[in-house]
Amino acid sequence: MTRRRLFWIAGPLLVLVVPGLAGFRARPVECFNAYTELRLVLSGAETHTLTVSGYRLHYYAMGPASGPPVVLVHGLGGRSEDWRNLAPHLARAGYRVYLPDLVGYGQSEQPAGFSYSIPDEARVVVAFFDALGLKQVDLGGWSMGGWIVQRLALEHPERVRKLMLFDSAGLMVKPDWDTGLFTPRNASELAELDALLMPRPPTVPDFVAIDVLRASDRNAWVIHRALASMLSGRDVTDGLLPQLRMPVLLVWGQVDRITPLREAETMHKLIAQSELAVIPECGHLAPSMCARQIGPRVVAFLR
After folding, report:
1. 220/76 Cα distance (integer angstroms)
2. Where in the chain do CATH 3.40.50.1820 domains reside?
3. Which of 125, 231, 255, 297 has minimal CB crowding within 10 Å?
4. Are the beta carbons of 103 and 114 closer than 8 angstroms?
5. Domain 47-302, what fold?
6. Helices (DSSP H) in the chain: which residue ranges?
7. What pTM did the predictor assign?
8. Are 100 and 82 in contact, with CB atoms under 8 Å apart?
9. Residue 47's beta-bridge partner residues?
């Protein structure tokens, strides 16, 4: 290949790549979010927006349109893309999978007047079912999302065929870690949060940490409002879980430090018809980081 021809090929590539690298270094969080959105779309997910209870809600849908509906609800500070590794297992098994962004999170609206409490988020999820014409679903929730779907299943048992709780919150348990770490203010607190979430957290480059902290600061007010409601103890489910009658699958990372395994064992005792699947060497992010182990177990439960 001549130098002249190489220049005409390499030149346009450099024009695209160099600004891209600069953009990644300036806003790595936005780049990662765009990448995860692209991964979902390339795996067959459709992205939609609709108005639910007066709020703009974003969601993904994937899998055959005629498949049995499964709705998965993310956790505190999370977003629908957090299910990117687990949802395809269900879609490939023939389920129609819906991944909503809760009010205040992801690409959904962040209304200043919303409470961000467990009951109010649960009411919006029920309204989401209604907006899509979903009479009954298989329902899953992760962490705070698990608490939300517990509430929904208790108040609307006819809407839930089977319930899945992934490293779920909801019990009257005072955390033995600093809940303020959910809105880290510096690189040291961010590292502490990562150590709580993952058994072997990766080293985060400084420019990535700076951008994560910037994004955290922007959304901190939502997290603070949700945490204040949860920590009040008003909406705990300890005394209510024995009322559940649908089949329940508890999926837990063995070394979860946010909602430790002992909380799963308590829920397992409270829900007579529950199954407990413990995922070795996984932490609170098990549905994402250990999806290969979890996916077949969830599909078998739903079938």
Report:
1. 11
2. 47-302
3. 231
4. yes
5. Rossmann fold (3.40.50)
6. 3-26, 28-42, 87-92, 118-132, 144-155, 187-197, 206-231, 261-270, 286-289, 291-302
7. 0.91
8. no
9. 60
